[in-house]
Amino acid sequence: MFIVIEPYRFLPPINGGHKANYHVCEQLSKKTPLTCISTTNNPDIKIPFKIEKVFGDKITKYINPFVGWKIYKSAKRLKTKQILLNQPFMSLLILPICRILGIPFLIFSHNIEYTRFKSMGKVWWPLMKMLESFAYKTADKVLFISEEDRQFAIKNIRLMEDKCLNMPYGTSVNQFPMDIAESRRKVYQSHQLSDDTLSLFYFGPMDYAPNQKGLENLLYQVLPEVRKTNKKVHLFLAGKNIQNKELNYIQQSDDITWLGFVDDLDLYIKGTDVMLNPIWIGGGVKIKLMESLSLGATAISYRSGSFGINIKTLEDKITIIEDEDSKAFAQKIIETPISDKKKTPKAFYDYHHWEKITDRTLTQLSLLQISS
């Protein structure tokens, strides 16, 4: 029995953290008996794995010994062979349980959290560093969501290399979509764009600081450089909670469309020519970049915004620009031809598909042997 601890509501999966846990549980449950232990406020919906709602979703759950006792009783009753904790926050409770039961303690690290908080100016990041360092050093294995995070932890937290595994964020899409051309036709007809216009797309909740900084970079630094040329471009923006300053700027620009909240993001991901990812702060894997690439997007990204993506599998489907180099970012847009999108290489799907990721991870954990 494999137990996964998800310390907050994650159903239905909405954000990247939710999706990572959901798909890991989904794929693991196909290979080995699994139960996810989580909070009582997860709704009763149909899911492909077992879940036990054991503790309340209160801030005290991370240190409350009664929560630890409930998890211990479930783990003992289920006769679990190892526990995988999503993120390190509950490690002070889960570590003793694993030691008492004599089973391995695993952590799935979604970010190096203290560096994320530090980059966002949170004054309490040193406390997070202490907790995170303790959790990773006491765990038997740490599964990092990006190779960049893994290498950072080995160097800066001084973890043993054989303790650190790479379990990247994945995609449920396993091949290049067949409706790229049709999606572009729909977008261009809907917005009355001429075929010689290069369409750009940037999306995300704009009340999240990294996304807001990316938006400011696009509007006030990148786009003005593009406008100096004869390049005909149109920038589509989607999301929610945009600032009035940026909204007023967009409304005065003929070459920008604010879409607001979009139900069908896939249409614009597949129907525009280039997905933009001008992100350099916040840490972690930029889920929107991963999902866009899996849906056939061609992307331009700042280097830090591409962490967690296996760039080597993408050939020329993504261009990496050094962080905050707005002129280079703009120049790449200017140089991008208007043409049919090249297919996302099969190697990308082979590496980043959730089933492939789970098989590799279980092999590393010696739970599954895959024939060659």
UniProtKB/TrEMBL annotation:
Keyword Mitochondrion part of the UniProt annotation: no
Report the enzyme's class at the first EC level: transferase
Kindly state which keywords UniProt assigns to this record, in alphabetical order: Glycosyltransferase, Transferase
Q: Which molecular function GO terms apply here?
A: glycosyltransferase activity
What the entry lists under SUPFAM superfamilies is as follows: UDP-Glycosyltransferase/glycogen phosphorylase
EC number in record: 2.4.-.-
UniProt name for this protein:
Glycosyltransferase
Task: Please report the organism this UniProt entry assigns to the protein.
Answer: Flammeovirga yaeyamensis
